Amino acid sequence: MAKIAVIIGSVRSERHGIKVAKWVVSKLEDKGHHVFLVDPMKLDLPLLDKMYKEIKSPSEKLQKLQKIIKDADGYVPITPEYNHSISSALKNTLDYFLEEYFFKPSAIISYSVGPFGGVVAGNHLRQILAEMGAPEIPSQFPISKVHETFDVDGKLLDKNYDRRFSKFLDEFEWYVSALEKQRESG
């Protein structure tokens, strides 16, 4: 199956994104995908000064991240909504690379504690990913009231999300397969 990079967008101390990410990783692995979890909290990247390709001696962490991004067949960024946009941690993590993303699909998951599930941030992220060459699938996956959707241990409380995610994943897998075939054909 495909290699998928799941990219967490939050570094807050009591972040909900880690719960969402663990659930997404398990769903992807259940379908046989090889999943890489990209956590900016563990990467501790400095604010972007130069892109990866411009750094003469990148750190080992950055080299590993570049390999993950380059080798991935698709991306699942998980973004919180902060003031109607994505987090600076997510933007900083994404901006280190460019060519590595080309012609590989992304599937946006957004969340918020409010009723709209971070859709405004998801729409903003759509523009960013399009510019980076990682076309996003038409559907987004917003998670409303994330603090009520997962318990403190990250267990899903609302099973309707399982059904919705299955359809979302089917769509993403179609795009992963289609773009992989096109990349292989040149």
Describe the protein in words.
With 186 residues, the chain is α/β, with parallel strands linked by helices. Helices cover 44% and strands 13% of the residues. It has seven helices and five strands; from the N terminus they run βαβααβαβαβαα. A five-stranded parallel sheet has the order 2-1-3-4-5, with helices on both faces. The longest helix has 25 residues, at 160-184. The chain is globular.
- The rounded distance between the terminal residues' Cα atoms is 21 Å
Number of helices, where a helix is a run of at least 4 consecutive DSSP H or I residues: 7
Q: Would you tell me the structural class of the helices and strands?
A: alpha/beta
Uncertain runs: none
- Output mean pLDDT: 96
For the sheet with most strands, the description reads: 5 strands, parallel
Strand fraction: 5-15%
Helix percentage range: 40-55%
Gyration radius from CA atoms, angstroms:
16 Å
Per DSSP E runs of 2 or more residues, the count of β-strands stands at 5
Q: Name the helix and strand elements from N-terminus to C-terminus, one letter apiece.
A: EHEHHEHEHEHH
How do the strands line up in the largest sheet?
Answer: 2-1-3-4-5
How would the global form be characterised?
Answer: globular
Q: How would you summarize what this structure contains?
A:
This protein is of the alpha/beta class.
List the topology elements.
Blueprint: E1 3-8, H1 17-30, E2 34-38, H2 40-43, H3 60-71, E3 74-80, H4 88-95, E4 109-111, H5 119-132, E5 141-143, H6 146-149, H7 160-184
Parallel strand pairs: 1-2, 1-3, 3-4, 4-5
